[in-house]
Amino acid sequence: MSKRTHGTTPEVASIAAEALRHLEWLRDSGVAEIPLAAARPRRPRATARPAQGGAPSLSSQATAAAPIGTAAGAGARTPAVSYSLADKGCGSEPLLAIRREIGECTRCKLAPGRTKLVFGVGSPEAGLMFVGEGPGADEDAQGEPFVGKAGKLLTKMIEAMGFRRDEVYIANVVKCRPPGNRDPEPDEIESCEPFLKAQIAALRPSVIVALGRFAVQTLLRDGTPISRLRGKWREYEGVRLMPTFHPAYLLRNPPEKKKAWDDLQLVMKEFGKPVPEKR
């Protein structure tokens, strides 16, 4: 008879760690009680409306994204690299097609300074999408968005909302790290945003959460301060968009977590998630 191991299995330890992160975020956000409620069926995802005149093809988006002063498509990518459905953020044929179209991109001046292009990560069936401004040092090294300290906080936020990180999709306005973590510049956005729009069209999410001043103001073409934009429903590419603070800002300003949690609860309601009571 084989002996049963009584130690904590890796799976149980992982579940416990996830639960602890969830509770820590709720505590920091001022939640005193968590309602006991049966899981409700997920609300069907809204159909993203195509832009007027129909969504542009990837080839036309790539042509529009050609760098200033360069002939369309010239020097834009290196086709020798192979991509697959197993690559980060490429879990469906439409997403994989976008990744192949981007290639090892040289469309803007960010390309020479990057370590890895950060395409995105998450479920190709995601009803919820998060969009930040651009990769930082950790993301540039690993080729995945939101993996540093701010990424760990974002994971807590996602889990507190009742999702797993691998159930949502995470991307950025630009896919290469700006030097010194500066804001992306207009020509860099012009080169990269068509591919973000293509990702949104491929995913067809119900809701986009835009993270931080730059991402919110860029997507909405609205220079209003994030403190006034947050918590109010807007729209981008035919999809409902909720602006909120960037996790990095919340790490620097912990009291603002309560406001971010208020914003996320509005998103939770869209998906029929139970909302904990405030203190």
Short key terms for the protein model shown above:
279 residues; alpha/beta; Uracil-DNA Glycosylase, subunit E; 6-stranded mixed sheet; two-stranded antiparallel ribbon; 8 strands; 11% strand; globular
Descriptive account of the structure:
The chain has 279 residues and is of the alpha/beta class. It contains ten helices and eight strands. It has helices at 10-28, 58-64, 93-102, 137-142, 149-160, 186-203, 213-220, 226-229, 247-252, 257-270, and strands at 31-33, 121-122, 128-132, 169-172, 207-211, 234-236, 239-244, 277-278. The model is unreliable at 1-6, 37-57 and 59-75 (pLDDT under 50). The N and C termini lie far apart (53 Å). A hairpin with a 2-residue loop joins strand 6 (234-236) and strand 7. It has a single domain, classed as Uracil-DNA Glycosylase, subunit E, CATH 3.40.470.10. The strands form two sheets. A six-stranded mixed sheet has the order 2-4-3-5-7-6. Strands 1-8 form a two-stranded antiparallel ribbon.
